[in-house]
Design a protein that fits this description.
- The protein is of the alpha+beta class.
- The chain has one domain.
- The chain is built from three helices and seven strands, in the order H-E-E-E-E-E-H-E-E-H.
- The strands form two sheets. It has a five-stranded mixed beta sheet. Strands 6-7 form a two-stranded antiparallel ribbon.
- It is globular and about 65 Å long.
């Protein structure tokens, strides 16, 4: 009997994990469509791209990434490339990165950015992209 209970609990946990993964994948697909629409609209409006820099985790240094696109937030923590990839612009502190730049991997875009951050810092991705388009080229690159 205890083995049956343990097996049922294990199966329930696996099914729960699978359900969460399916939900995350669906949200990622929905967010990716928003990103692709943003890139299309940004290009059609002639929004200038810029070389994207990553900030060291400690905030003291900025590193070249070889990426080109648009920052989504003034502080430069989030960006979208011309290819429609979503990036969190953060890298480990490194002397090598200061000299040669750093390589970042794209992230799965979330439907809400900043979840778990300080109050008032979370925002639906759709709203963030809308605000970025409205800002046009007036939005300065982060310093």
């Amino acid at each position: 009997m205890p083995e049956d209970w343990q097996e049922r609990r294990r199966e329930a946990a696996l099914e729960h994990a699978a359900t969460l993964e399916r939900r995350r994948a669906a949200e990622t697909r929905e967010a990716q469509v928003l990103i692709e629409d943003f890139v299309t609209t940004a290009r059609s409006r002639g929004l200038r791209t810029c070389s994207l820099l990553a900030r060291a985790h400690n905030g003291r240094a900025r590193y070249r990434t070889g990426l080109t696109g648009w920052y989504l937030k003034r502080n430069g923590c989030l960006a979208v490339t011309e290819q429609g990839d979503f990036y969190v612009m953060s890298a480990a502190s490194s002397l090598r990165s200061r000299l040669t730049g750093t390589t970042l991997d794209p992230s799965d875009p979330p439907l809400a950015v900043g979840v778990g951050a300080r109050d008032g810092e979370s925002m639906p991705l759709k709203e963030l992209l809308r605000l970025r388009l409205e800002a046009g080229d007036e939005r300065p690159a982060p310093t």
